[in-house]
Write a structure and sequence with these properties.
CATH architecture of the largest domain: 3-Layer(aba) Sandwich
Strand order of the largest sheet: 3-2-1-4-5-6-7-8
Distance between the termini: 42 Å
CATH class of the largest domain: Alpha Beta
Number of domains: 2
Structural class: alpha/beta
CATH topology of the largest domain: Rossmann fold
Order of helices and strands: EHEHEEHEHEHEHEHHHHHHHHH
Strand content: 5-15%
């Protein structure tokens, strides 16, 4: 795994490319747009990460032939674009090249998890999922960051974690793919809810209560899908929830913050991707199919779909029946 391919030249893809280079790997950073690849080759700086130089070991390219020698590939594209990435650039990777999914979401049209999308598109490829509390700017600067990487085969997870870990980037390996990807996808919806509470100026006590109850929902949902409880208490679950529900650096929290302040969903994104906005409805439908009650996720989905106003959703959550606290 001396040569790592990173498919996706956004902020997080660029940050992971730098992190892999710091781990001593040769890195191919593949971008769909040849013009962006050429500009990045010249300036060595992604406009999405101002002031952070791309390391010399990273080759920005739009040439699919450059993917052919990769020993592992990180798929760092939006969740709703994962299927296209698997059918497009990922199809040019070696057949045995492990695919590491770095998107945090559920496919909106099908309700499938990212691993399910990948297994259907490339059933013979070894598969892993990377998730955890990681802001692109921190990672790109080499600041201390720890995440979880899961593969069904522990040996593969350990090899990938060792190949990508560097001075400031620590990867813990696991085998619970479903738990890791549920933590990453569901926490985005919870982060929107936390942002809404902050935007409504309901106070820190209300936000803490919402995050705690929302995390209980996340655990119920994960358990219904066969995930291990300890996974949700780790970096890809609780760790990511703590980060995403407390900082405007989180796109999902910032999106919710603007919703709470009165902006409509179409405007609240400000042109930035908030994965939770696409995941909320799919998460709600999967939870209903498994009989899992998720009032916080339902409130977010209803607000985004226009079924309830922000104020009504918040009032409904506060009016829920009193009951014993049992998760």
């Amino acid at each position: 795994m001396n040569r790592i391919a990173v498919i996706g030249g956004g902020a997080f893809g660029t940050a992971l490319a730098n992190a892999a280079a710091l781990a001593g790997r040769e890195v191919v950073l593949w971008l769909r747009d040849p013009r962006r690849a050429a500009i990045l080759s010249g300036t060595r700086e992604n406009p999405l990460l101002p002031g952070i130089a791309l390391l010399p070991e990273v080759l920005p390219t739009a040439d699919l032939a450059d993917l052919s020698g990769a020993g592992a590939a990180l798929l760092v594209v939006p969740a709703q674009a994962m299927r296209a990435a698997l059918a497009g650039p990922a199809s040019h990777l070696p057949a045995a090249c492990p695919l590491v999914i770095c998107a945090k979401g559920i496919e909106r049209e099908t309700g499938l998890f990212m691993s399910e999308v990948a297994e259907a598109a490339r059933p013979a490829a070894p598969l892993a999922v990377l998730s955890g509390p990681s802001f692109a700017a921190d990672l790109a600067r080499g600041l201390p960051t720890a995440v979880t990487l899961a593969a069904r085969e522990e040996a593969l997870a350990a090899r990938l974690a060792a190949a990508l870990s560097g001075p400031g980037f620590r990867l813990y390996h696991a085998t619970d793919i479903r738990g890791v990807e549920i933590g990453g996808a569901a926490k985005n919806v919870l982060a929107i809810a936390a942002g809404i509470v902050a935007g409504l100026r309901l106070g820190e006590s209300a936000r803490a209560a919402l995050v705690a109850r929302g995390f209980a929902e996340l655990q119920r949902f994960a358990a219904a899908h066969g995930a291990r409880p300890e996974t949700l208490m780790g970096l890809s679950g609780l760790g990511d929830v703590v980060m995403s529900c407390s900082s405007p650096q989180s796109r999902n929290f910032a999106f919710g913050l603007r919703l709470g302040a009165g902006e409509p969903p179409a405007k609240a994104g400000e042109g930035k991707l908030a994965e939770g906005a696409f995941t909320a409805e799919a998460l709600l439908q999967r939870s209903r199919a498994r009989g899992v009650e998720m009032p916080v996720a339902e409130a977010v989905a209803d607000v985004l779909a226009g079924r309830r106003s922000v104020a009504d959703a918040a009032a409904d959550l506060m009016a829920r029946p009193l009951k014993p606290e049992r998760g």
